[in-house]
Amino acid sequence: MTTLSGLRVLLVDDEADIRLGLRLLVEPLGAQVATAASGREAVQVMSREPVDLVLTDLQMPEMSGTELLAEIGAKWPGTVVVILTGFGTIQTAVWCMRHGASHFLTKPFDNEEITGLVTRLGRQILAAREAPPTDGERRIVGEHPRMRAVLDLVGRVARAPVPALIEGETGTGKELVARELHRRSAVADRPFLAVNAAALPDTLLESELFGHEKGAFTGADSARRGLFEAARGGTVFLDEIASMSLSFQGKLLRVLEEKVVRPLGGARDVPVEFRLVAATNRDLEEMIATGEFRQDLYYRLRVVSILLPPLRERASDIVPLARHFMLRAVRSCLGDDARAPEMTPSALDALTSHDWPGNVRELENAVRRAVVVCAGEHVFPHHLGLGEERWTFEDDAPGDYDESKRRALARFQREFVERALAACGGNVTHAASRCGLTRAALQRIMRQLGIDRAAFDRA
């Protein structure tokens, strides 16, 4: 029998019978189940205890499912969210998927569909949390020497309870590194709580981190602990720290120095224990020079500095990352038993020649798109959605005309022939006829490009 022991599931619906029905479906799977009658109550539950998977209704009073989805994305980006609704539209489904929902199901739903989905997602969540790395540091895909140096540094500092500052461009995987620091720390069994500073104004950020008393502001219907207190000795990850105002920076500095917080509306300090891991995609030293960031806070945060290289500077990791994302996307989008499509040489060439301004996040999105739109067994460049960017010239200079023309023609020939072979299941004769070529001519082109027809055989 399937058991999801250790999986923490939150069921959110304003109808008691729906909550009960979902509980009766999910609890027998072995998961720990909590319920909430509204989006606001769900936020309160998640503020008190960690949650792995949320199943939420869409239409609810006070806070809708879309608002809850946005709140979870800002405060608990690692939590998986499934939307359940009786008012589903394509536009709403697209919005929810673009804003972080894992799945979008319409009511009335089939019981087996719910149990199957929870089982599949639960296995993925537990595997990511509990499976030991094959060599001690395989949770982050990276074989390039610069990434190996990052992983070595993470391993050395993880068990030291000191603040760490992770620096790098958007999309380089700063939160993944923060989670790895926590996973390999001495307090890995305690909470890892994340918040994006750029997503919240000062007052809400202060409430989120420091907590608040009942009546502290409009909508504060009950007292709530902040993340610093809720961490209970674990890790608090504060992303985009450069977006904080100077006033709030001063308040954060006091917390780091004195290890106490004063909740909004409170009259006394509360002792806290946590490790702070911060991240930024901006140059904090430049911000210090312009008076936008406090120097004393910078040195408090930067006890250990971890600099993540952009993907374009570790090109040898592009293909391993793409294959890793491919397997993950197939499981999440197509199911555990689905077969992953194969990357054609032209698709791999498109990946390695792309500049990746969005870094690893852009690569993951491109691979996920390819899995969704690819109807066959092979991924071609057009499935990746990289547009014309892969045709840009190196070093922003056109170079030699004849050489550039030769490369462009070779790319066109490779994708053209690959798509013809894929459509014909690797049958050279049929592919040649489809292209208006003789078999000998197509074979000559295949030899020139190093294309093996066996790669396109249909199983």
Overview of this protein structure:
The chain is an alpha/beta fold and 459 residues long. It has 3 domains: 8-130, Response regulator (Rossmann fold); 145-309, Rossmann fold, CATH 3.40.50.300; 312-456, Helicase, Ruva Protein, domain 3 (Orthogonal Bundle). The chain contains 19 helices and 16 strands. It has helices at residues 16-26, 39-48, 65-75, 90-98, 111-130, 145-157, 174-183, 202-210, 227-230, 246-258, 284-289, 295-301, 318-334, 345-353, 359-373, 381-384, 401-423, 428-435, 439-449; strands at residues 8-12, 32-36, 53-57, 80-85, 103-106, 164-167, 192-196, 211-212, 224-225, 235-239, 260-261, 270-271, 275-280, 304-307, 342-343, 378-379. The chain has a 5-stranded parallel sheet, with helices on both faces. Strands 7-10-13-6-14 form a 5-stranded parallel sheet. Strand 3, helix 3 (65-75) and strand 4 (80-85) form a beta-alpha-beta unit. The longest helix is centred in the C-terminal third of the chain and has 23 residues, at 401-423. The protein is globular.
Average pLDDT, rounded to a whole number, is 83
Structural class: alpha/beta
Q: Mind telling me the C-alpha Rg? A: 25 Å
Low-confidence stretches: 131-138, 388-397
Tell me the strand order in the biggest sheet.
2-1-3-4-5
